[in-house]
Specification:
Elements: E1 2-4, E2 7-9, H1 11-17, E3 24-28, H2 32-35, H3 40-43, H4 49-67, E4 71-75, H5 86-91
Parallel strand pairs: 3-4
Antiparallel strand pairs: 1-2
Amino acid sequence: MNQAMGQTIDMDKLKVKVNPAHTAVLVIDMQKDYCCDGGTFDRRGFDVKPAQRMAVRLKDFLDKARAARTRIVHLKMTKIASLVSPHRRSFTNGSVLNESPTLRMPSSMK
């Protein structure tokens, strides 16, 4: 039995329902800019502590998924200036936001 978000999960029952041989984990936009001190969200005043706590849990989950030989797919949104829609350009005053060059990742997330 494991605890997740205040609920007990019976891992044996889960293994029956989710066969790692036929399963993939999709991780979407788990980027340092969204969860690290000094990242884009932090610099804009967003509280990144919840994302940092989630990143630690995600790392543990992915470690277990790898041990079960589950496929893991990471998707990352990237902004390429020539591909940005006109609507997005007007929203950002014509600029394309870039990721932070240097971020401080909490040791618990490494």
